[in-house]
Amino acid sequence: MSGLAGQSDKMCPQCKRVLAPTEFHRDRRRVDGLAFYCKACAAVRSAASRRKRGMAPKRRSAVPVAEGLKWCPDCDQIKPLADFPTTRTKASGRHSYCKPCHNARGKETAQRLYGGTREYHLRQRYGVGEKEFQELLAEQGGVCAICGGADPQHLDHDHRTGWVRGILCFNCNGGLGQFRDSPTRLARAITYLRGTTWQRALIHPGVYQMCSPTRGRPPSPRS
Question: Which keywords, in A-to-Z order, does the entry hold (predicted)?
Answer without folding.
Answer: Endonuclease, Hydrolase, Nuclease
